[in-house]
Specification:
Largest interface: A-B, 97 and 95 residues
Number of strands of chain B: 0
Largest sheet of chain A: 3 strands, antiparallel
Helix content of chain B: over 70%
Strand content of chain B: under 5%
Shape of chain A: globular
Structural class of chain A: mainly alpha
Radius of gyration of chain A: 27 Å
Oligomer: heterodimer
Helix content of chain A: 55-70%
Order of helices and strands of chain A: HHEEEHHHHHHHHHHH
Shape of chain B: globular
Order of helices and strands of chain B: HHHHHHHHHHHHHH
Number of helices of chain A: 13
Largest sheet of chain B: none
Number of strands of chain A: 3
Chain lengths: 355, 290
């Protein structure tokens, strides 16, 4: 009798729990589970948004169109007698145009990158060179931005963790870039990077003799990525510093006192106490920030538009600009897979505690 | 303590102060530059080299100019944007807290089969790349024919609801189960216990998670840009600022953009500085613990 009523209570509790979870489950089904299934399915079709033609199943065609690439060696240019043509000014070999070695049929491969190795030149041809470059841009962006953020974040966290007057104010100041809307911060930096001396950077750089005051930070190919990284690092370093600061505060003070007694100096304390104990915190922060920056959208879209893509902005332009739902879905799936791979790799390598 | 050389200590102190100044300048400078530019007229903005305070191009005297603020505050799209952002961010926060606290109570206090898997599924969703579902969500929004603002509120659940549910679960877990059991003995239902006894106890957590949810929704750009691409008047602040173009000028009206940036940033900065401690706790709890 007693046992039976307990079971009834257990069942009642379970029922209540399921009911309470229902709103969350329904909402997440509508906005996450169903759209994901839809994305995986649509990525195998040629669906065009508001298109007149019937949607067809095309298997992995979207994926091969996005990821198809080949590497070819570019032959050197020769004259009619087979002699190498050499540039008269630089004295370097001249190479044929990529169009001469990349296939046109059945599908066209366009040059995405050209690389020089040991005096030979290779061309990487891709069916969607913009997407291939978007992947490379995003990965480069993530590696550089996250490394800088971690370094600056560590420095700032160590500074605001030591005792000094005004520490509270410093800790509050740190939150300001975090509170600025990402689009707003991108616009602020866009204005500071103005390609004339109306902009801050050109004003200062020309004063100290760098450039002519007209450096086109956001239009010159080699400066675009560094500019976006500068804006992103400013905006996200505080978050990194906060996480690392929280980790620092969890290190017991007694360890340092004991180290003093043993005669360890500050550098030694940092290397033997702070860094090892901070490792798990930094690992978690790295995972968070890397996964975040692999899906970077705002800074690229606002500062570079369609001049240079990240994976997310390429996805956006295919969907809204070209109305290619099938293709855009495949891009979404590729981003998903890439991010999962990174997460898996990170968690294994850094030994992040999943509990 | 080990004896330290006095001169060395002096040098370290100076180096430390320099480092503090360097960090403060780095953090504050872009914002200072924005405020500075927002008070410059068109001619003042075009001065070369750019001045570090708004100055009169002829006399060189300092002169603040309010035209950018005036024209921004008369810009109907910008004002609509603020209103839309307030509506969307408030409704998102409310919905995410409502659903999240129900789920948090169930997962933190009640015993049921499948709890672990539910928790893990929800946690994994906090890592989910928004852009992956972009196309699918866009299709769902069009199929349901949702008003763009409603669409944004619903779509923001993908990054806010897993977060609120997860954080609130850990708060409910910390409350002793005896409260629930004694309320049961007194004849209260699970929902009554939740609503009248346990929920008030989690008020601090609700404030923190609510604040973070609000700021994240206020910030959101990708979904807002996509879902309002056909409807100008539903745009939220980030989209309005990204699309800001002058009515009269050929160049981008950076003075107005900067003024608009200042206007939308100051309330958030004030809010953040006021709730500083809570925010830091919420941010680090979500990450360090999770």
């Amino acid at each position: 009798m007693a046992k039976q009523s307990r079971t009834k209570l257990v069942i009642e509790e379970e029922k209540a729990a399921y009911k309470l979870l229902l709103p969350t489950v329904i909402i997440l089904f509508i906005v996450a589970v169903y759209p994901v299934l839809q994305v995986f399915y649509t990525s195998t079709t040629d669906r065009v948004f508001a298109g007149s033609s019937e949607t067809k199943f095309i298997g992995l065609e979207n994926y091969t169109q996005l990821l198809g690439f080949m590497v070819r060696e570019l032959p050197a240019k020769t004259d009619s007698e087979g002699n190498l043509i050499v540039d008269s000014e630089t004295g370097k070999k001249e190479f044929k145009h990529p169009i001469d070695v990349l296939p046109m049929r059945p599908v066209r491969y366009k040059s995405a990158y050209q690389i020089d190795i040991f005096g030979n030149r290779y061309v990487i041809g891709a069916r969607s060179p913009d997407f291939l470059r978007a992947i490379v841009n995003t990965i480069l962006f993530s590696i550089i931005a996250v490394s800088l953020e971690t370094l600056f974040g560590l420095i700032i966290a160590l500074v605001v963790n030591s005792k000094f007057k005004g520490r509270g104010i410093m800790r509050a100041l740190m939150l300001i870039p975090w509170a600025v809307i990402t689009v707003v911060s991108a616009r602020m930096w866009e204005w500071m990077f103005h390609p004339s001396r109306m902009g801050f950077f050109n004003t200062v750089l020309s004063k100290i003799g760098i450039g002519n005051g007209n450096i086109a930070f956001l239009a010159a190919d080699s400066l675009q990525l560094p500019s976006v990284i500068a804006a992103d690092v400013w905006k996200t370093t505080p978050f990194m510093a906060l996480l690392i600061l929280a980790g620092l505060q969890m290190i017991p003070q007694e360890l340092y006192e004991a180290a003093w007694v043993d005669g360890a100096n500050r550098v030694k304390q940092f290397m033997t106490i702070t860094l090892p104990l901070l490792k798990p915190t930094i690992a978690v922060a790295l995972v968070f920030r890397t996964l975040d920056s692999l899906r970077v959208f705002g800074p690229f879209q606002v500062m570079l538009g369609s001049q240079k893509y990240s994976m997310a902005t390429y996805n956006y332009y295919q969907l809204i600009g070209n109305r290619e739902m099938g293709l855009a879905s495949a891009i979404g799936v590729i981003i998903f897979i890439l991010i999962s791979l990174f997460a898996f790799f990170y968690i294994n390598m850094l030994g992040v505690d999943t509990e | 303590m080990m004896p330290e050389n006095k001169a060395l200590k002096y040098i370290t102190n100076i180096a430390f102060i320099l480092l503090l100044i360097l960090i403060s300048v780095y953090i504050l400078f872009p914002f200072y530059w924005t405020v500075n530019s927002s008070f410059k007229s068109e001619t003042q903005l075009q001065m070369m080299p750019a001045s570090f305070l708004p100055t009169d191009p002829d006399t060189g005297n300092i002169s603040f100019n309010l035209t950018n603020y005036k024209s921004v505050l008369q810009n109907k799209e910008f004002l609509m944007g603020i209103l839309n952002s307030i509506i969307v961010a408030t409704a998102t926060t409310f919905l995410a807290l409502l659903a999240g606290s129900l789920a948090g109570f169930a997962m933190g206090q009640l015993r049921f089969r499948g709890k672990k898997i539910t928790l893990y599924v929800i946690l994994s969703m906090t890592m989910f790349p928004q852009v992956t579902v972009l196309t699918g969500l866009y299709a769902v929004m069009r199929a349901l024919n949702l008003e763009p603002r409603l669409g944004m509120i619903l779509s923001y659940m993908i990054f806010t609801l897993p977060f609120t549910a997860w954080v609130l679960t850990s708060f409910f877990k910390d409350l002793p189960r005896e409260i629930l059991e004694s309320a049961r003995v007194d004849g209260a239902t699970f929902f009554q216990t939740f609503r009248f006894i346990l929920l008030p106890l989690t008020a601090p957590a609700l404030v923190t998670t609510g604040l973070l949810t609000f700021i994240r929704s206020w910030n959101e750009y990708l979904f807002a840009l996509t879902f309002t691409s056909a409807s100008r008047m539903s745009r939220t602040v980030p989209v309005v600022i990204a699309y800001f173009t002058g009515a009269t000028t050929h160049q981008e009206p950076f003075g107005q953009i900067m003024a608009a940036s200042v206007i939308v940033t100051i309330p958030i900065v004030v809010l953040v500085l006021y709730f500083q401690r809570k925010i830091v706790k919420g941010l680090t709890a979500g990450a360090v613990k999770g």
